[in-house]
Amino acid sequence: MYYLVMAGIDYKYSNLETREKVNFTSSAIKRAFEKIKDEGVLKEAVILSTCNRSEVYGILEEENGEGYLRNFYSSFFNIDIEEINDNVACRSGFDVIDHLFQVTNGFKSMVLGEDQILGQVKTAYNEALKNKGSGKILNRLFLNSITNAKKVKTITNISHASTSVSAIGIKLINRHLGSLRGKKVLVVGLGKMSKIAIKYLLSEGVEKIYITNRTKNKVTDLEVISDNIEGIDFDNKYDVIKDVDVIISCTSAPHFVVHKEEFLKNYSEKSICILDLSVPRDVDPKIGYIDGVSLYVIDDIEKIAKENENKRIKEFDRGMVLVREDVYKYLDWIKDESIDVYGCNVNDTSKLQVEKNIAL
After folding, report:
1. Among 3.30.460.30, 3.40.50.720, 1.10.101.10, 3.30.70.640, what is the CATH number of 3-160+312-359?
2. Where are the domains positioned within the chain?
3. Pick the residue with more confidence: 121 or 304?
4. Which of 117, 184, 198, 347 could form a disulfide with 244 if both were Cys (CB 3.0 to 4.6 A apart)?
5. Could you tell me the sign of the dihedral formed by the alpha carbons of 330, 333, 337, 339, in that order?
6. In whole angstroms, what is the distance from residue 284 CA to residue 276 CA?
7. Looking at the domain 165-306, which fold is it?
8. 35 Cβ contact partners less than 8 Å away, ≥ 6 residues apart
9. pLDDT number for residue 349
10. CB of 31 closer than 8 Å to CB of 38
11. Residues identified as active-site
12. What's the chain's average pLDDT?
């Protein structure tokens, strides 16, 4: 008998402070797989880590997999088990399959149907393969969820109707300032969310965009897009603070990249709006208490995302029909392969209950 389990911390059930503590950096993922192999409890494992969620999926031959995963989070990140118990959501059997399919489709994202999560699930699966963590059962589960998400995006308009976290962040700043036209902006980091933010900033008619990143050639590539984009050295990012109206930061750094002491040395006391899209946070939260500074973090995005969610509900319902079909196909594969996975061998008499669970 195999047991399919997962444990995760996400934006719905935990606070930002706890999510920061359990962020798997690239080096942390490698160490986590090494720890999992050394302990020998999980026979297969995949680790999914994004700005809004940190999840470990596993296959084991012992029944108390959820307890193991809670203790894994506690010991690996050196967090009290009480805090883990208060913030970690655990699932087993069929509920894991249901959850992963919906996560991969962006159905459990802060912005319903957002695109970025599909790429993050692919990356998580590839990392598991590279670290020899995933096996037959999780391989098929993740490949099927990825294929299903591609199909849903092709057949429905869920992605067309959705808005990225970056775009909603720009909308939040626009609402705060009244308009971004003629404003000067500093963008720290050049990941996917930052590039999306830059696109929306240009469409809003900003006067100037300063871009800084630890990798200089990425900045150079963007400078040719528009005359009002200027790259600056990462170490010189504080020099333009006195000139800008907005700072948008989104890096993969495990620590603050904008510190209060350096910020104050260069702050001219004019109003400035800061959007921190990173988890862990890029911007020292103490900066938000400085007079004239308005600091928004990733959790503030959810408020605006909720306003637009009704527009995507119809497409979500269409997508869930496709999810149901492919979840059943995965369950049939388990049966055809004669793999005994607890809670996943669904027979015809229980399919009504399964369909009810998927819709929740």
Report:
1. 3.30.460.30
2. 3-160+312-359, 165-306
3. 121
4. 184
5. positive
6. 10
7. Rossmann fold (3.40.50)
8. 72, 76
9. 31
10. no
11. 51
12. 90
The DSSP result for 90-117, as a single string, is EEETHHHHHHHHHHHTTTTSSSTT-SHH
Nearest to 205 by CA among 241, 173, 240, 179: 179
How far CA 208 is from CA of 22, 73, 198, 306, in Å, comes to 36, 43, 11, 31
The secondary structure of residue 153, as a DSSP letter, is H
User: Each residue of 277-288: pLDDT tens digit?
Assistant: 999 999 999 999
Collapsing DSSP to helix, strand or coil, 341 comes out as strand
pLDDT higher than 60, residue 354 = no
Strand partners, 90: 7
Question: Please, which contacts does 120-124 make with residues 24 or more away whose CB atoms are closer than 8 Å?
Answer: 120/48, 120/50, 121/48, 121/145, 121/146, 121/149, 122/146, 124/46, 124/47, 124/48, 124/49
Question: Whole-angstrom Cα distance, residue 213 to residue 333?
Answer: 46
Q: How far apart are CA 241 and CA 287, in angstroms?
A: 13
Alpha-carbon 54 to chain mean position:
8
Contact 286, 260 (CB under 8 A): yes
Q: Which two tokens stand for residue 189?
A: 């980091």
Q: Please state the φ and ψ torsions of residue 251, each to the nearest 5 degrees.
A: -120, 175
pLDDT in tens, 150-171: 999 999 988 776 568 888 899 8
Residue 203 burial by CB count (10 A; 0-12/13-18/19+): exposed, middle or buried?
Answer: exposed
Checking DSSP bridges between strand 53-60 and strand 3-10, what pairing results, if any? antiparallel
